[in-house]
Design brief:
With 110 residues, the chain is an all-beta fold. Helix content is 0%, strand content 69%. It is built from no helices and six strands. It has strands spanning 11-22, 28-52, 55-67, 76-79, 82-91, 98-109. The protein starts with 10 loop residues before the first strand and ends with a strand.
Length: 110
Amino acid sequence: MRKSKIGRLSNRITIQSAVLTPDGQGGNVEVWVNSSDVWAEALPGGSNRLIDMMQNAIHSDVSFRVRKGTVSKKNRIIYDSRICNIEGLRDWEQDREFQFIDCRYNDGSV
């Protein structure tokens, strides 16, 4: 029996794309639909505390390492039943096969 080695790409993430659908009133509404499921390495990001207009909000960040070409900045990611908004994409300097996706958790969950 052959053993497969997943390695560091051991987390499953769902890539979503925005699609415009008719709203029945003559306009369109943006709906997020699943595009693909890919393997990724989830890397903890940082946390920062934003104090604005006497309101406290804490944002958690996460980065993913995925195979290059699987996502664009127009997408969003579902990871661990949480919505992750894509903040930026970076190439991995050691290996051109992978890229990093820097995300910020959305307040809502799936």
